[in-house]
Amino acid sequence: MFEDRSSRYTGNQELAFAGMRILFGVIWLINTILEANSAYIGRFLTSIVKRLKGQPHVVQTFLHGAIHVVTVLGPRHVAIGTIVLDGLLAISLITGFAVRPMARLGIVYSLALWVTVGGLGGPFQPGSTDPGTAIVYALVFLAVLSVPSEQRLSVGPKSQPVVGTGRIEVVRILFGLLWAFDAFWKWEPAFFEHSLSYLQQADVGQPAWIAAYIGFFISAIQLVGQTAFGIFAAVIETVLAASLLLKRWQEWFLPIGFLYSFGIWTTAEGWGGPYQLGSTGNRGDMLGTTNIYMVVYLYLMIAYLFERRRHKRMSV
C-alpha cells in the first residue's frame, strides 16, 4: 500500500540510517547500564504496582494480571531478564548483527514495557502530557525495520535491502498520531493552568548546572505567563501533528519538531534525570521520552529531506 519502488535510498542515506541505528543502540546501552543495579532489580515489582494508582478499572485489572505473572516468575528474575534483553538489543543495534529479528523483538518488548512498567502511559487525566515512554522506543524499532539499517557499518550477513521509501510512511503516520495525542491533552485547561509545574518538578534533585538551566526557562515562562506558554505548547504540538499526518511543510517542521523535542527533554524531562542508583527521572528508568522523539525526527529527516535535496539537484 505504501511501497514506492521507484524511489530508492542513496548511499549517503544508507550510511546515515546506519549511524542512527548505532545511536539508538548507544541509548539502549545507556539504559542497560542504568538498570544494571541492585536498586533497579529490588524495586522492579514496585514500579509496576505504582502504576495502579488512578488507572481505570480495566487497566487496573490488566496490571494486576501482569503483577501476578511477575510475582510467579520472580521479580528478581524478570528484572534481570529485562537487563539482559536490553543489553542484547544494544549489541545488535550497535553492531548491526541480526538487527531485523532483534528489532521485531524490540517492538514487542517495548510495548510490553509500556503496558506494564509504563502503565499504558496513564493514568490519563487533565494535565497529562504524553502517551508514555516505551511506546516511542517501539516506534524507533519500527523505523529501524523500515529503512536499510544494516547495509552499512554492520557485521554479519545482511538481509534483503529495503528498496522503497514507502515503509517509513507508516512511521510518519504513527508518529503524527502520537503528537496528536500529546496535543489533545495540551488543550486541556489544566495544562494551561499548571504548565510551569512540569519544569518545576523536573528541577528537583538535579545537579546545579541542570537546575540553573531549567531555572532560566522557568524565569522566562514566568515572564510571559504560564497560560501563554501552555497555549504556545498546544499550538506547536498541534501543528507538528498536522505536518506529520498531512506530510506537509516537512522541510520546516521536521527540524522544528526536533528542536522542540530537545527543548522538552532538557527542561520538563530534566535531561532524563535526576539520575540515581538504578533509576532515572523517566518511567521504566529509561534515558528519556522526547529524546527518542528526536531520534524519530532524525530518521524522518534522513528519509525525506535528503530525498528532496536529491530531487532538486536532479531537476537543475
List its salient traits.
mainly alpha; 316 residues
Helix vs. strand class: mainly alpha
Q: How far from one another are the termini?
A: 31 Å
Mean pLDDT: 84
Q: Helix-strand pattern, N to C?
A: HHHHHHHHHHHHH
Report the sheet-strand fraction: under 5%
Give the % helix. 55-70%
- pLDDT under 50 segments (min length 5)? 1-6
**Outline, from the CA principal axes?**
globular
Number of strands: 0
Total of domains: 1
Radius of gyration using CA atoms only: 20 Å
Number of helices: 13
Note the main sheet. Answer: none
Describe the structure.
By secondary structure, this protein is mainly α. It has one domain. The two termini are 31 Å apart. The longest helix is centred in the last third of the chain and has 26 residues, at 290-315. The chain has helices at 11-35, 38-42, 44-49, 57-73, 75-95, 99-115, 134-146, 168-186, 189-203, 208-224, 226-246, 250-266, 290-315. It is globular, with a radius of gyration of 20 Å.
Short recap of the structure:
This protein has 316 residues and is mainly α. It contains 13 helices and no strands.
Architecture blueprint of SSEs:
Blueprint: H1 11-35, H2 38-42, H3 44-49, H4 57-73, H5 75-95, H6 99-115, H7 134-146, H8 168-186, H9 189-203, H10 208-224, H11 226-246, H12 250-266, H13 290-315
Helix pairs in contact: 1-5, 1-13, 5-6, 6-7, 7-8, 7-13, 8-11, 9-10, 9-11, 10-11, 11-12, 12-13
